Amino acid sequence: MKQTINTLLARKGGEPISMLTAYDCPTARIIDEAGVDCILVGDSLGNVILGYENTLAVTVEDMIHHGAAVCRGVKDAFVVVDMPFMSYQPSVRDAVLNAGRIMQGTGCQAVKMEGGAEYADRIKAITDAGIPVVAHIGLTPQSVNAMGGYKVQGKTEAAQQRLMQDALAVQEAGAFAVTLECIPSSIATKITQTLNILTIGIGAGNGCDGQVLVYQDMLNFTGGFKPKFAKQYANIHDVMLAAFKQYKEECGQRIYPDFKYD
């Protein structure tokens, strides 16, 4: 069944929503075939696909390129595309224009943008233009330098109050969902129970309305750093490495190819 905003919102307080990242058509097709509800084309592609140290170098053009590829591979999943760094921060006008470019260029169903109350005016303007928005609070990777690194947010009572204020602000501005990243499960659950919109957790406990993971983390695709909250469901790195090594050996020994045209 094709997922829409209405089918997703109907599950508030009920069956949790599943979301995974994807950045290309074949991966999106497999995720869609598995029945995962939503696909996020995250600006995390800067880290896991393009080889950047963080997400800050990712452009709108990058997001459109990868977002369009994902959408071409999807039949049923609801596709959300990230708005990258500096695509919405400068002004409300920039935010609306770039959100429109992403929607038109990819065929996705919604955009996602980091930040809370400080960007409520952007969220309102984008939703007023008929573009659905997923907000994102807590650890916001585009603010990694201002935050002093990738750290758990909302540890103090004051910080938790700010998170709640941000969550209410993005809801009021028109977002239909909000990502809660790397915050204590207690405040994530409280936010979820307070809001009428969906909460999608990543490192925020199982009390949210849904969960999202970077698929490279859950498959051990890179064989490197793994977030503490990310469960690994497979070890693709080792499978690929073994296959590549065997190929190299067979080439060197002239075992491959063992087929020839007569």
Would you spell out the secondary-structure blueprint of this structure?
Elements: H1 5-9, E1 17-21, H2 25-33, E2 38-41, H3 45-48, H4 60-72, E3 78-82, H5 92-106, E4 110-114, H6 120-128, E5 133-138, H7 144-147, H8 157-173, E6 177-181, H9 185-194, E7 198-202, E8 210-213, H10 215-218, H11 236-252
Parallel strand pairs: 1-2, 1-8, 2-3, 3-4, 4-5, 5-6, 6-7, 7-8
Helix pairs in contact: 2-4, 4-5, 5-6, 6-8
List keywords for this structure.
262 residues; alpha/beta; eight-stranded parallel β-barrel; 11 helices; 8 strands; 41% helix; globular
User: Which class best fits the helix and strand makeup?
Assistant: alpha/beta
Number of distinct beta strands: 8
Radius of gyration: 20 Å
Please state the average pLDDT score. Answer: 96
Largest sheet: 8 strands, parallel, barrel
Which strands sit side by side, in order, in the main sheet?
A: 1-2-3-4-5-6-7-8
The portion of residues assigned to helices is 40-55%
Span between termini: 49 Å
User: Which regions are unreliable across 5 or more consecutive residues at pLDDT < 50?
Assistant: none
